[in-house]
Amino acid sequence: MESQKITGVDFNKARRWYQDACGTALAMDLIGERWSLLIVRELLLGPRRFGEIRGALVGLSANILTQRLEGLEKGGILRREALPSPANAQVYALTAWGRALEEPIFALSRWAAGSPAHDVTMPLSNTAFMLSLRTMMDPERSRDLAVDLGFRVGGEPFRGAIVEGRLDVRRAEVSDAQIIFEGQPSALASVFYGPAPLTESQAAGKVFVTGDVKLAQRFIDLFRLPAFINA
Question: Please, are residues 47 and 98 in contact by the beta-carbon 8 Å criterion?
């Protein structure tokens, strides 16, 4: 049987492919190289410029990013687009098939968050923090909470709303939001997932909350990390 091709990628000629019919092997062929899945993660909230992607992923060189973007484009996972005037800039955006990686990425995140090696105080990108909120919010406990949320994460604005037990997040201005959280992503993660209480982080000037602080704490209480299963 002849090998199939995805936008010009020949499975038999491509280097380091598993040559395995299992879907898991094919997934690793497409997104298993170092940095690939994190690049996809950075695009889950919308298109980004080359420099924005690189700036969010500390340690990723321009050369490797170029290679990974080319591979993801050939695999049909992302595409290049041009922003309209006056920006006139090239951005990278997920295809519809690429956006379908959201749930697998969230499932991997939930699984890995239960590891004893998981350290919420380590650096993470603005997008990674916002996606963690979508991943880790308890849907049952959130159903009776209606709140218009704003976040300035590392200076970048995001807007959030709870809809049917799901946290919808988008990049948008936040000045008129009911509650606004502000801080660096690692400081915010320490508040939402421990060990830093909101009151102490506010007093230390690491996290700022505008609006009803009690309501903000109710929102924070919707998040918890899964327990490690050691059986």
Answer: no
